[in-house]
Fold:
Amino acid sequence: MLKDNHNSVSNIPNPSIKKGTIKENLITFLEETLSKFQEHFKGKVNESEENLNEQLGKTLSYFSKDQTFIFQAETKQKQPKGIDRRVDIGVFRHFSDPNPFFTIEAKRLSTSIPNNRKKEYVLGNDPTKYTGGIERFKYNIHGVNLDHCALIGYVQNEDLKFWHKSINNWIQELIDSKITSSLKWISNDLLKNTCGFKDLRYAKFVSENEKINNTKINLNHYFVNLCI
Structure:
């Protein structure tokens, strides 16, 4: 589980931080810390998603002691009806805030994953359980009523280009109705390359995804290469 940020949880809004910039500060921090995570945990090519999430959570908490936000593992995402869901990591402005202002979901990217789960970065095998990463954001199950969140892919074999191409191929199959889905999939759901693959250890992509309630969410996609 995540280490509590009690040392920083005096976490009273910092007047030196300009209003409206906390999300930008978080993105910068997240990208810098993912680079540190990759360096420390490279080689974990057989590690489970649960264990990697635990390590990621501890890493984010450790380096965020001087930040104006808090990370919480397994954050409850309240649903209008039915069973509440939990997202891997929620980010809060203050320990007393009831809802996160940003959420992070993570998935393994490995060809060794069973066939019925291999596309889970995008969608799950069972249309009634909504286990896919992008799928959950589009259903407003993760990132409930938020307009900006993140998905992390732990690359455990192949390389960054392979997974970018594979994931976009799966999304294109949904756009072309070759895969059945009750969601609307369009070209904006595709992962747009903003990194140029200049760094083989790490890559960032973006997408603008329409939710089932007709709102939109911008997703930052981070692929962390654990193979090198």
Notes: Strands lie at 70-77, 85-92, 102-109, 148-155, 192-193, 202-210, 216-225.
